[in-house]
Structure formats: structure tokens, C-alpha cells
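re the bet — no i am not wrong, look at it urself. input seq straight from the record:
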Amino acid sequence: MRRILFLFSLIVVAGLSGLKAQDVEFKAIAPEAVVVGQQFRLTFSVNAEAKDLRVQELPDFDVLMGPTPSQSHSTVITNGKRTSETNYSFTYILMAKKEGTFNIPPATIKVKNANYTSNALVVKVLPEDKASEAANQNAQGATGISDKDLFMRMIVSKRKIYEQESILVTFKLYFLSSVTPQNFKFPTFEGFLVQEIEQPQNGIPTKMENYNGRNYQTAVMKEVLLFPQRSGNLTIEGGKYEIVAQVRNTNQRRQSFFDDFFDMYRDVKVTLTTAPATIEVKPLPSGKPAGYGNAVGNFTMTSSISATEVKANEAVTITVKINGTGNLRVIKNPEVVFPNDFDVFDPNVSLNAKNSTSGVNGSKTIEYMAIPRYGGEFEIPAITFSYFDPKTETYKTIQSEPYKLQVEKGEGEGNAPVVSNFTNRESVRVLGQDIRYLKVKGINFVSNEEIFFGSFLYYMAYLIPTILFIIFFFIYRKQVKENANIALVRTKKANKMAVRRLKNAGRLLKDNKKEEFYEEVSRALWGYLSDKLNMPQAKLTKDNVETELLKYGVNEELIKEFLDILNTCEFARYAPSQASDAMDQLYTLTADAIGKMENTIKK
């Protein structure tokens, strides 16, 4: 009796675990769009044996048939492992009564005494075609396809925007018969920063849409987000698109009864175009607040500090995270002001953004690391980030709390440098004897004239090292003094750092890495100006660079040359359509401009 109960328990447990292991999926399937008076299928599918299907009333549709049950079974063998799946479906044949957008409520079904609910559906009912077939045939050309049967639209979401505000441009193909895209030449979008929206990898989905009184199958061929980089009227040029369409061969003479059953078609190559579009780009309003980071959109900001109590020479990190929708990829980093006694490093920036039809959504995280060198109490001011909201057409400012930092005195802080004496002395030891005897054999006497001690060379051997030591001592003191002047050190090393980055840009130029090349040239110029003018890069702008260079006596022509190179790099990084010879010319101009600046500013 105990064995029977034990086996029964095992069977029950196995059955329950098998039911849990199998994920029951119950879903409703129907087309997204249908035409008034057109029949369509509404199918409820479940991957387990089910019963008692309950569907709510559908007042907006006529139920012509159903539910019709069906069953399918599939077996898949992968790496010797066999898996089987059985699917049960219940199909209704419906017909829409009127045009509009209607909801199909979820249904319920019972699987092994458990109830499951399907998803709800939204079906858009389109009106019937208004254009007559005869009128359409009269409009057909030599190809047998009219511009009403097959065309491409460039749909622009907005025609009036601000600088750096995104617009969505959609290229949608409208067709009635089977088509095959061949060669597409999309516009170049001059004057815009382009962010492409990724399309599905497993084929382009089609949808039914009513346009100008006719029902078409549509397919989105390309979607891009455009960010205007300057104000004024910017034109998006038209494109050209080659399509192969299937056309009924009307010249084919009917030979037999079966010709009515098997229609004859032929392939026709058609070139489509889209009309250009003009976008009015308004400049950003005046009165930009402090901390404005070239950001346009809707954002939030959070910040945190790694520790508020550290020791001297230990790193502290402030993390700033900007979330929202807008031109995330090009916004400037907020400025974090550390005390003067801190060693500050370049921030580490990570971007997590996704392009969608609503814009670029995501976050930008900036980590600022600094090392305090002395103990004491310090305060890091509040971090400010400002952006322009195009919906409200106003500037908005976000500010964090200031951070108080307690730095304890570290090891070795305040102690003078230690000079070690590594001279070793050897003591003479007499092992087993009290007296060491003088050697009397094997002695070679040297003439007094040949003795080095007391000679001219002997004294010069002391004098020359002494003079060299004094010279090197004063040179070393001068270097120590100069190294203590951080501004002077940065100024002297400015050209060396710029040349190093330009060499790296040269390697990127040879590898034809255009975006990385322009970014490295831009970094070389900004880094050079930061070191030469002894100003943090975060405080450098094109306006104050021009003012500071004029103070150093740099002529306006050379300043304009620097700013032109920076503008070229900034624009080319986000619209990389420059030829290789233009990149070579920019590389040469950058090297010459830095050389001229070195000759002008001599510090």
C-alpha cells in the first residue's frame, strides 16, 4: 500500500511540474487594417489542449463563420534533442460594418482547469476605394503602371523647428501589386545631423493604408531623425528609387480556359522620385542661461559622489547622469568645479541611447575623477545643466546639491623629501691572526714621474666633476622651479601634446576612419588651446578663445583659421561626406596653424 501511494505521489508531482514547465501561450491574431465589406480572419491560438473558448460580443463586425477549430503538430530535433509542440486554433470569419478604429476585446479559454486570457486587438477599418478601375487604366503609361498605382512619399513630421530639434522623416512605399525594391538613392540631408532608425532585420513589414481615397499596401523603407545644425531654410533634396513591379500582361491573348485561371504577369522596372522639402529652422532664443550645454529636448539630471570622506591622494568620483529625449549625442558635459589643490582628470563619458520615431531616447553618464593632494574641508559647488525645451519654447535649468568633502591628511603629506646615503663601509677582519705581515715579494716600483697622485690629471679629475655637478645642480633647481609652475609646464608641453594627437589623426587618415579622424583633430586643437591659454577645456568656447588669443597678440586671420578648422571638424563628425583629399588638406592646415601659433605665442 505504501508503494502504491508513493508511486501515485510521484505521478501527481510529475504532472504538476510538467504543467508548470510548459508555458501556456494564448493569443489573438488579426490584420491591423481591413476594408469595409472585406472579409478577414480572427484567430485565437493556444499551444496546449484547451476547451471552453469564450469570446465577447463584437458589435462593430458581422460574424460570418466560426469558431472553426483546427490542430497542428510539429517536431524539431536539435543536437539530438527532440521537442514536440501542438497548437490549437479557433478561427472566425468577420466583416467590418463601417470605417473607423475598433477594439476586439480579449477572450478567455480553459487549459487543465486553469483560465487564460488573450491579448486585445485594435483593427483599423478603411473605406472602400473611390477611384474607378477604368479611370486608373486610362492614366496608365507605357509600363502599364500609373503614378497612382505605385509611388514613394517622403513624409516630414514638422516643417518649422528650432536648431538641434529633431524631426522624423519617413520614406514610405505605396503599391497595389507585388513589388521588389532594387536601387534606392536617398537624399544626403545637407545641414542636418542624421540618426537612422533601425529597421526590422527579418524583412520589411507591410500594412494597409487608405490614401487619397484608395487602399494601398505600404512599406516603410527608411526612417531617419534629423537635427538641424544651423538656422535658416534648409532643403531636403528629392531621391530616386528603382522598383520592379509585377504587371498583368494585358496583351496576352487567351488561348484556353486555363488562361482565366492562371493570369500571366510580367516584370516592369519603374523609377520613382520624391519631391524636395524645405524646413524652416528658427534660431534658439537669446538669453541662454549659465551652464547651457547645447541641449535641445526634455531632460532630467541626477548626480552622486563616490565618498564624502577620503584621505589625501585618494581618488574621488562624481557621477552625473542626464536622461531624456533630444540631441543626447551632441550635448556638452556639465562643468564640475573642483578645488584648486585637486588633480583633475578627463571625464569618462558613456552613452546609452536609442533612436525611435519619438526621438533619441536614453541617458548620458559622465564620471569626473579628481585626487585631493592635501587634507582639509572642501566644497564642490552645485552642478548646473541647462537645456532648451522646444515644446514650451523656454530654457530650463537643473541644479544639483553642492558636495562637502572631508579630506584627511595622507601618509607622507608635509614631510620633506628624504635623501638616502648608500655608501657602504667594509671593515677589515683578521681571521685567526693578530698581525698581517707585509708583502715583500712581487713588488713593482713605479717612477715618481709616472705616479698619477698629485698630477695635473689627478686634480682635473676632481675639478671637472665638481664643475659639472654645480652646473647640473643649478639646471635641476631651475627645472624644479619651472615644474612647480603648472601653467608654464602646460604651455611648454602644448605643442608636444598637439603633435602627438595629430600623429594619431594621421594614422586614422591612412585607415580612412573619417569620424575618428575629425574627432582627433578637434581634440588636438581644443587640447592645444587649453594648454596654451592655461584654461580648462570645459570653460573654453569659441567666443572666449577669440578674446584670449587677441590678448596674446594673435592676429585675427590666424584666429579665424583656427575657428574654421574647429567648425569643419564639428560639422564633419556628424555628416561624414568629406572626400579623402579634403581630409588631407584639413590635416595640413591644422599642422600649419599650430606652427604659426607657436611662433606667435612664445612663453
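see?? Residues 12-21, 414-435 have pLDDT under 50 and may be disordered. told u. also Residues 22-126 form a domain with the Immunoglobulin-like fold (CATH 2.60.40.10). so pay up
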